[in-house]
Design brief:
homodimer; about 550 residues; alpha/beta; Formyltetrahydrofolate synthetase, domain 3; 3-stranded mixed beta sheet; 18 helices; about 35% helix; P-loop_NTPase (chains A, B); Formate_THF_ligase (chains A, B); ATP-binding (chains A, B)
Amino acid sequence: MTAYKSDIEIAQEAVLKPVMQLGKEMGIDPDILEPYGHFKAKVPLEAVKPEEERGKIILVTSLNPTPAGEGKSTVTVGLGQALNAIGRKAVVALREPSLGPTMGLKGGACGGGKSQVVPMEDINLHFTGDLHAITSAHNTLAALVDNHIHRGNELDLDIRKGTWKRVLDINDRSLRNIVAGLGGRLHGVPHETGFDITVASEIMAVLCLADGVADLKDRLRRMIIGYNSSGKPVTCGDLKAEGALALLLREAVKPNLVQTLENTPAFVHGGPFANIAHGCNSLAATKMAASYGEFAVTESGFGADLGAEKFFHIKAEAGGFSPSAVVLVATVRALKMHGGRAKDDLKTEDLEALEKGLENLEKHLETIHAFGVPVVVAVNAFVHDTKAETDRVLSFCRDKGVPAETAEVWEHGGAGGTALAKAAAKAADAFDGYHTPLYDKKIPVKDKIRRIVQEVYGAEGVDFSKEARNMLETIRQEGLEELPVCMAKTQYSLSDDPSKLGRPRGFRITVRELRISRGAGFIVALTGSVMTMPGLPEKPAAMEMDVLDDGRAAGLF
Amino acid sequence: MTAYKSDIEIAQEAVLKPVMQLGKEMGIDPDILEPYGHFKAKVPLEAVKPEEERGKIILVTSLNPTPAGEGKSTVTVGLGQALNAIGRKAVVALREPSLGPTMGLKGGACGGGKSQVVPMEDINLHFTGDLHAITSAHNTLAALVDNHIHRGNELDLDIRKGTWKRVLDINDRSLRNIVAGLGGRLHGVPHETGFDITVASEIMAVLCLADGVADLKDRLRRMIIGYNSSGKPVTCGDLKAEGALALLLREAVKPNLVQTLENTPAFVHGGPFANIAHGCNSLAATKMAASYGEFAVTESGFGADLGAEKFFHIKAEAGGFSPSAVVLVATVRALKMHGGRAKDDLKTEDLEALEKGLENLEKHLETIHAFGVPVVVAVNAFVHDTKAETDRVLSFCRDKGVPAETAEVWEHGGAGGTALAKAAAKAADAFDGYHTPLYDKKIPVKDKIRRIVQEVYGAEGVDFSKEARNMLETIRQEGLEELPVCMAKTQYSLSDDPSKLGRPRGFRITVRELRISRGAGFIVALTGSVMTMPGLPEKPAAMEMDVLDDGRAAGLF
């Protein structure tokens, strides 16, 4: 068997173009590029072109993922490279990694093999500081809120109802639930609170959905920092904090330009949680990619039931654009898991499990079709896949009239994805329309949720807890019924039960809580338990990391 | 009266040189400069020249400061500009500002008037991300420690003795004392802990004293993260976390190159607390400044009793260098306060109070003389000073044989400091020796403390609390007697009582606690109460901040 190099080894061997040259070749005025070292740059928002001069958007999504990961980012990067390889100018737009998981389990999140964005060490570590700026802005607001309460609480915030929490870009379970403000009257007011991971901050979602600095400030102003004793929301604007927050985010709002291993330009910017937020890179990065490419290749979080649905209903709606094609990533091993095979037993051929698992893929294809956008399936190749397995997936799709190609972009880079690139380009070239939302934004929030669980998940219906019903009433009273819904659900199943793989039927979804993300501009519907601050594993990835004597990074596998 | 522009107005009108050009003119190979935007760059440690090729160091310190501030950074920047104005090539080395105080009371910390480092908005906000990297490294270690305890606590850390705390670069009193790890068995082990501000992190001191990456890793490895049930220190190295921390600090260790309003190069890098740490910019920045200037002009924290003493005994010792001259900043208004005048009543002439206050200055001059380095007094001019007052300070110094000049660098930039520059250059030119430490590093810690309080503060002696005496024993047992001492004392008085201004006599110093900063390489002696997490004031500076429509920052006065 071939001995493969690790991601970091491949990345460190890459021959990168200086970012000023990369930008110049794309047609970006070098004077407006702000270099961060020689291979990263921030691009000001003014560089986004008007809609009529922008290219088309290709959205990469997947079936319900398995704990091993399906390589969606790898396919996104690889497809961008492959499009350029077939002579179609493409620019990639990706989320930027969170440091917490990097130090915990994942080690890195820049794609993999020969389809990575580079310099991967920088992108995986502090990059251009966007997440740190969000952490600063978020926690500055928390300190301002607590200082307000400490100094008389003129806004009548009720600490028993919870106020604005804090965030850190660290996996730290000890901070999930804390009591702060202890130590006596000089040290604040004692109250229960906690920390989320930075990517779960509403400010991350705000930054990713803001259309310019004025919109950023409006969204920050609207964020709810708590409730007063009459139950009315109190906002960041009531505290007059939006100016300082916007100032702290002044650089972070600008998309980051880097490149892939094959010098395809990539905007890597923003990375909100894919459960309590919408899970896509920033609007600005996607528009920027479309401004300088015939195609912008971008991805959404988790599977199509969460990521693609939110891309259509939240991100595309906020950005006023539509994808022209969707690439749905499937893997033989995930399909076998959906067909009942155990997750540590996926290396041998099992056509029966595969066949059964295909109904998970089938459901997602139906969903994309419901949005009215052409779909192409990418079978992301893994070493243990057999030809019979791969062929069965391809024929299953093609029999339904869905173009399907294997993607060997991990092993071969762009050259391993040319068939996929041709199919995706053909689909996008042929589509000049706009997607069809699955609900009208004017219908009540509870009906929007019902539409999603029935049309996208295949559920029979939805039940609301008493708390959620109360919040539906608050939403009505506050005049927020027109906001879109952001579903927080397990990514592993179409249902709200992570153990129900494949295509579960005859189930209902329970919404136990609703939260208003007024700045982000959506209502979060929480189903099942949602973790917003991860913990570290038994052996954290950090233990293997190091700086070598020559200054190179080690351990970011 | 002249109408003066605000600092940010002056800064925004400055004509900056592109940093690549600035570096090139200094003789730094552009290929090794890492630009952060067009006016900031990181310079790798390899660019430090061998000692024999480096220029001389001029240290700027002050008398005991008052709450209004004496303009020490302004004089440091102005002196750098003035040296260049008289044809002597000087490079400035300064601490980088902390975001917490910027959002709280101070608004900014880059010097002032026509003696500022720029771009001041960037430097005051996230700059090149150094403080964020330290926050990340510090809190990653905290998460690793808590995860270790959560997963069985093999190292037998005793949580009752306190373990590694967390930091944020925010003024947030609510986080000083918290209980973390609440919520049940999946969420860590409940324990009392808290947050310090990032500049109080031992990692900040480590970064500022590290002589290269190998030394950085050694220092990180030695940091004490807690004590086991037998009372033995447990270190970061026991947890094998130093590699990950060093990786997170890989960029942060490199000094940041910016410039002053008059295009004098300035390295702005590192900024440890001046009480529980040594309060100076990084060793690397100072060496870098000396590598590219005939003179490196640098400052230390607070007054000479704390800042200069620590510069000599901690920083210069770690760096193997000596300042060739000390510039001691005095102001008429501070001298009048030391002479008994109230702090809100300093605008009218009072030669009597001034005369009395001069003994504070006198004590600091004696201290610098004890170190055996030439001293020059800079009388930093303020609008309300009268000629009679200024003349009295100058004659007082000159009568003692100490060169003294006014510094009008706030109002006139370098042109307002040429006489000072000539005096400082003359003093430094004439001195080819090495300072004389006030204690031999081989004497016990308690004797080092006694030497400092007697020789530098003028105290009669020192008393140790029972807790401190126990720690002296631990220090002996652990073989750490040779470490230097880092005094944590009020900056406002030579004594440990902030209300005793002027030159107090007949007092003793009480050391209530000793802490081992094993990584930084010093023993912290705490006297009085020391605040390591500030709070926000009634009206935080953040409330005035904003981003204007043209993208410029507002409210960073």
